[in-house]
Design brief:
single chain; 212 residues
Length: 212
């Protein structure tokens, strides 16, 4: 990733998201934002524990990874899916099908994000019930100020998790020569702020026992 404080398009997008988060937090108030933040944290914990189980369930009952691997084999350039690239791409020992590995990696990432989204939404609904109490009156200003800070923190965590979860399949796709992945990873490698997001993700992984 970028070593110097030189911003690119991806960095400016991250800054814009954080500024919009601050404005939205002022409008939404503390409890709605707490609901979002706690939802992300609880959803993250549940996702860490169960995302691989969900991916396995989707494969065993619906054959999702197998189907997705078939799509890759049909749509992607054949040289990129040649099993002879396993050693060159440094895949896990014994893996004979790069397409299935890429498909499984994507299904695991999608499972993680689905659990994270559903878990966070449930917690948010509970906290929104408390927001009405503090939406008006003398506590309104404090409510809005705290809401601003927490919403920035929440969206920072969301971006860190998204970056950390998606970087592996994107880099794998880039190593297989997929044009979209090559362009995306180039922006990622040149981004100063994305490197900080990945550092946050690594810290979260360490707190959670490196289960992501």
């Amino acid at each position: 990733m970028g070593d110097s404080m030189q911003l690119n398009v991806l960095d400016y997008a991250i800054i814009a998201i954080l500024l919009l988060s601050a404005l939205a937090g002022l409008r939404r108030g503390l409890f709605k934002v707490i609901g979002g933040l706690m939802g992300i944290l609880i959803g993250l914990l549940v996702a860490v524990v169960f995302h691989r189980e969900l991916a396995l369930y989707l494969e065993e009952h619906f054959g999702l990874s197998t189907w997705l691997a078939g799509v890759f084999q049909e749509k992607l350039p054949l040289p990129a899916l040649n099993p002879g690239l396993v050693k060159a791409l440094d895949f896990p020992a014994g893996l004979a099908d790069p397409a299935f590995y890429l498909a499984t990696s994507l299904v695991i990432a999608i499972s993680f994000l689905v659990i994270l989204l559903l878990g966070s939404k449930l917690v948010q609904l509970l906290c929104e019930l408390l927001e009405g109490i503090f939406a008006h009156g003398i506590l309104s200003g404090v409510n809005r100020g705290l809401g601003m800070g927490l919403l920035v923190l929440k969206n920072l965590l969301i971006m860190a998790v998204l970056a950390g979860v998606l970087v592996t399949p994107l880099e794998l796709g880039a190593r297989m020569g997929l044009p979209g992945a090559l362009i995306t990873t180039q922006y990622m490698h040149d981004s100063f702020l994305l490197e900080q997001l990945l550092n946050i993700f690594d810290y979260l992984k360490a707190l959670l026992g490196n289960k992501v």
